[in-house]
Amino acid sequence: MSKIISSQNIKKIAWLIAGAIFFIIDRYLKNLAITSNQSYDLLGDILAFNFIPNYNIAFSLPLNGPWLIAVISLIIIIITAYLLLVKLRPLERTAFSLILLGAISNLIDRLQYGYVIDYFDLKWFTIFNLADVLITLGTIFLIFSLSKKSHQ
Fold first, then answer.
1. How far from the centroid of its chain's Cα atoms is residue 123's Cα?
2. Maximal CA-CA distance, the chain
3. Which of 26, 109, 121, 132 is catalytic?
C-alpha cells in the first residue's frame, strides 16, 4: 500500500493533473479566442489576448503545408511509443507528457481548422498559446534531464 501512495507517485499524479488542467484551459482559451472578435490588452502594450490563426509551426516559424499534420502526427506517435516502451525517469516522463499534451492540442486545431489558434500576442516577439508553453516547458525539462544524465 505504501508503494501506491509514495511521494514519487503523488508527484507524477500532480504533474499529470497540472498538464491536464493546462490542456483544458488551452482548449477553453482557443474557443474563446475564435468566438470573440475582440482584442484585450493584458499587460499594456506588452501582451494582448486576441485570435490569430497560425498556419506555420511553433512561434509562427515559417514552416507550413499540408504535410505538416503528418509530421506532427508522426512525432506524437513516436513520443507515445517511446513513453510506453522505455523506462523513464520522472522528469523525462513529465517532459514527454507536457510535449505530448501541447502537440495534441495544436494537432486538434490543425485537423479541425487547418491552422493552430494562437491567442497570446507578445508584442515585438511572437504569438503563441498555452499548448506552445507546454511544448516549450517539456523541451526545457527534457534537455535539463538529459544533460543531468550525461554528467552522471
1. 21
2. 53
3. 132
**Does 26 qualify as catalytic in the annotation?**
no
Q: Looking at 26, 109, 118, 121, which residue is catalytic? A: 118
Confidence (pTM) = 0.80
**Catalytic residue check, 45:** no
Residue 96 in contact with residue 140, Cβ under 8 Å?
no
Domain ranges within the chain, ordered by starting residue: 7-150
Determine the average pLDDT of the residues in 106-113: 88
